[in-house]
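Attaching the record inline, Q. Sequence:
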Amino acid sequence: MYKIIKYKYVALLSAFMAATSCKVPNLVNVKNNTALPKRYNESADSANTANQQWRTFFTDPSLVALIDTALQNNQELLMTLQEVEIAKNDIRAKTGDILPSLNGRLGVGLEKVGRYTSSGAGDATTDIEPGKKTPDPLPDYTGAIDARWEADIWKKLHNAKKAAVARYLGTIEGKNFVLSSLIAEVANSYYELLALDNQLMIVQQNISLQNNSLEIIKVQKEASRVTELAVQQFQAEVYNSKSLAFSIRQQIKETENKINFLLGRYPQQIVREAGNFVNLNPALLKQGLPSQLLENRPDIKQAELALEAAKLDAKVARAEFFPSLEIGASVGLQAFKPTYLTKLPESILYSLAGDLAGPLINKNAIRAEFASANARQLQALYNYQKVILNAYFEVANQVSNIDNLSKSYDLKQLEVNTLMKSVDISSDLFNAARADYLEVLTAQRDALSAKLELVETKKSQFNAVVNMYKELGGGWK
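Structure, as predicted:
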């Protein structure tokens, strides 16, 4: 007889599981395609500057000190660190869902049932002691411990925890990406400041040259060699250069404030190396192989972890189609009078129950959530592929940019040298009355413009090297 009942329960359980799990949709088959070109250009050297620590990559002690301060005080970086803490706490919450829960319970109540009910009639005719009826209304004092546990049959809770772990690791990679970007932004702003200092020095030197030319023009005007028009045009050129100097000073102030903002502090003087900026040489880079981006770039690893979390989320959503098993138990003491709580075993309460529950009809909400989870999984895949593609193009563009900037700088240097000679020649010819004063003005103007462009090209070289270092995945290690 016992075996017959046992088989009936097994058959009933099997039928319930079959009813709740029929027509369960399948997961989308997501395949990671991480194939990258074998090289960026003709070079196939595996040596990679991304493996170099930023303290050795940047050799300027003033810049290193600024980066150190930024890593301690930058608000965006500090906010990102809190994202890491939030993700870590999410892991603890998901771990708690897997483990049994244990709660303590103390209760006091009062119950009055109707006289003409089964409970009321029973209480009225029952003696709790000889000659003593059940109290009416009936108090209730309870002290118990309740336990509850969901058996993770379909790995739903474990997959949810794994997804939380993947997201936590993703926030760490996100922190590394912010770290790398912050270092690059401080360095680029620092080199911009050096370039502006150099441009201001060039403009001031040009103002001195123009003032000398203006004095010569005034003397020649007194000698009737030139007219007042020449004096006014040279004077206007001096005013223009002085105005340009104030514009550069404003850019210097704004760049200093930008660096102070990145360092998380109020405006103050930025300590920097003095000297001729155009004589500095950017660091030499080794781009390595494209496949190394998968290991060095934090944003790629973050996107990969986001894809892994999305896959696990889809598994969790699919598990909702299956029945879940929850086991609950309670043990404690209960009586209608506090002094009776110590009367054992009469005051002992206990219970043990198991619930097997699953969806039978109207699964639209579950299907919708599963479809959304699959869509998010595909979305994460496309984002992963996009991040890899973007990383490759960023590096490939900078490889070409650095090469072209180097060639452009060499030509710009020749242009400056040529124009400086033309300034001297035009001045000599003008003094010998063999050239017009407009030729002197044009030569001086072109030389100033070329010098400023030379400094701008040098700054672009430094920025390209810094950006290349970041885009290779350097700076966070």
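The chain has a mean pLDDT of 89. Strands lie at 101-111, 127-129, 132-133, 138-151, 324-335, 348-357.

More tomorrow.
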